[in-house]
Design goal:
Helix content is about 40%, strand content about 20%. By secondary structure, it is α/β, with parallel strands linked by helices. The protein folds into two domains: about 210 residues, TIM Barrel; about 100 residues, no CATH class. It is globular and about 65 Å long. The mean pLDDT is about 90.
Length: about 325
């Protein structure tokens, strides 16, 4: 799986401004604690290159890239330090040409048809849309997608996006992922509030996936076993038992077959498969077998919770 595919499955790209390279690894670990395995370290500070190097060497499970790359020299320096993808705020042909020739994933900033066609000429179909809030937001992305849909264009909008409008973007088929500094607040980094960074990341992932219980039928179980089942589902899907998100959907029917079924509604099945694999519910073999899922539902037949199979569904309009 290449870097761009991982970014798309992650759905979230924290834009990290790090002023002290010693803070890079704790920041990366905080994001990983919140289940985000991608980070874009900007070149806005002198610590940018060393920060990338530290994360690449000490936190290999993190997909680290360089952002705000303005020159070819800085691009080369970033890659040498360990950056696995490059992000530029605009379409810099020298940077794009070098990255394409050296097979380095790059998402150049493109907000006009001319810039998009420049990217397409290099075989680049996923571009950065920045600053999204200034250039028309999701409406502009939709309008630009229209003539370029057949070319497979998708966007990574950044700027003016946070938890309040995240869903407006990520539910659209032309949005590859979303980025932003709100996922990695600079003040939190400076003040070493890494727990806060992890919490924000985790909340964003839960919002991204949008798990709800559509239905649940259980084989005959004792009351204690049902409670244990609810707790396991709550832990895996980050659903609150106290709010009856699970309890209100559980049906206990004596005499049922040996296996029940839990139906989970999610905003995007393939992203869900990616995150459930990271959470350990889906093995690598199973993930490779069922990904990508091209339907609006997916039965995880090989994985059960207390003799209860799991079925994922997503809204038909997506």
């Amino acid at each position: 799986m290449n870097a761009l595919e991982i970014i798309g499955l992650s759905g979230l790209v924290p834009v990290c401004v790090i002023q002290d390279a010693a803070d890079a690894v704790p920041t990366a670990k905080a994001l990983l604690q919140g289940e985000i395995g991608v980070m874009e370290i900007t070149m806005r500070t002198e610590a940018g290159i060393d920060s990338i190097r530290n994360v690449a060497q000490q936190c290999p499970e993190m997909l680290v890239g360089a952002g705000t790359v303005l020159t070819l020299d800085k691009c080369k320096e970033s890659v040498e330090a360990g950056a696995r993808f490059i992000v530029s705020p605009g379409f810099n042909e020298k940077i794009v040409d070098w990255c394409v020739k050296h097979q380095i994933p790059i998402t150049p900033g493109c907000v006009t048809p001319t810039e998009i066609e420049g990217a397409l000429a290099y075989g680049i179909r996923t571009v950065k849309f920045f600053p999204a809030n200034i250039y028309g937001g999701i409406k502009a992305c939709k309008a630009l997608y229209g003539p370029y849909q057949s070319a497979g264009v998708s966007f990574i909008p950044t700027g003016g996006i946070d938890q309040s409008n995240l869903r407006e973007y990520v539910d659209q088929p032309y949005i590859h992922a979303v980025g932003g500094g709100w996922l990695c607040n600079t003040k939190d980094v400076v003040n070493h509030r890494f727990d806060a960074i992890g919490q924000t990341a985790g909340e964003a992932v839960d919002l991204l996936l949008g798990f709800t219980v559509e239905s649940c039928t259980l084989a005959e179980k004792e009351a204690g076993a049902i409670d244990a089942f609810k707790q396991k589902v709550s832990q895996i899907f980050h659903l609150s038992v106290e709010e009856n998100q699970i309890a209100g959907s559980v049906i206990h029917e004596p005499g049922q077959s040996e296996q029940g079924q839990l139906v989970i509604r999610t905003h995007q099945i393939n992203r869900t498969l990616y995150y459930l694999h990271k959470r350990g519910l889906i093995t690598q073999d199973t993930f490779e077998k069922i990904y990508p899922c091209r339907d609006k539902s997916c039965l995880l037949a090989d994985h059960v919770i207390d003799k209860t199979t799991i079925k994922l569904i997503q809204p038909a309009q997506l």
